[in-house]
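W.,

You were right to be curious about this one. When I first looked at the sequence I had no strong expectations either way, so I just let the prediction run and decided to look at it fresh. Below is the sequence, 377 residues in total, followed by the output.
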Amino acid sequence: MTVTFISNFLLHHQTPFCEAMVRRLGDGFRFVATEPIPEERLQMGYRNLEDAPYAVNSYKDDASYQEAVRLAEESDVVIIGSAPEEFVEKRIKDNKLTFRYSERFFKKFRWRFHPRAWKIRWQKDTRFRNKNLYMLCASAYTTPDCRFVFAYPHKTYRWGYFPEISQEPYEALKALKQDHEEVRIIWVSRFIPLKHPEEIIALAKRLKADRLSFTIEMLGVGELREEYENIVKRERLEDVISFSGPFAPEEVLLHMQRSDIFLFTSDKNEGWGAVMNEAMSSACAPVACREIGSVPFLIRHGENGLIYDKREKNSLYFNVKQLIEDPVLRETIQDNAYRTIADVWNAETAAERLLCLIDCIQNGRETPYTYGPCSRC
């Protein structure tokens, strides 16, 4: 079998899945990158992975582009993410098995009723509803958007991002979290509006007023970081909030492994949020906004994480306070969060299940999975 994954550029969020596919298919798997990684990403600590042995960089030269076109046309299966339609339009019309890989379509509500948005969705999705075209959902909110535009009837499956995760055994991570008295909280994001760093400042003020023993590390870069560093100084929160980064992905994992609670405060403009996988694999107890694409897929409230609602003023505060004050609950959630990634939501499982799903589709069978990657949603 030959499988080709086409997307804009190769990131460390995709390499574990790609390598898992190579272990199963060898030279039968290729990743086609359609543009170089942006300089902004490199400055954030991301690696340039265009030399990966399975990568075909279509932007490099004409020979690479023609190889990418050949793979798109001749592969048994193609997965396409953010990439030009020219690579797959013919194969979709020829009814060759193809998967789209997408986050939610309508991050801004007004686009649900915009004629231009509907035209795009018709051209890419709705007109092919009866073709051999399926959707791998990189957000829990992709399927509702597909239904809204009458696309992919009974053909959407849970998917996501499968980044590099902690390889430390749980007991070793547990020991790291017991070498400090205060509860360590970590927030890992860019300092931009959709990530809502202001929620962390408000939370810290309330927790400090409660005289709870905690620290918060805000790890990341972005246009608003200096502004929030100044706010922390003005509010006299330097004793409980620190700033760090940027770091390479493996260094971020080290910071997570030493933390007890992970906060994810993005709004619905967040697609998947691969940082959630990384934090859970590091045995952090996650407290995350329900609007984030990965949250309904990954978190079962009260079991392996806590979900808060931005519409409820005190929701984030009460959830975090509960974890700080209840070490038994905190440890239970840390354990379950770790096992969620180690046992189900990881690259090896995703690769194995995708190949099974492909076989099921080709032979007219239903997916055997009811939870996790490649289960119907």
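Here's what jumped out at me. The mean pLDDT is 95. And, maybe more interesting for your project: The CA atoms of residues 182 and 214 lie 5 Å apart.

Coffee later to discuss?

I.
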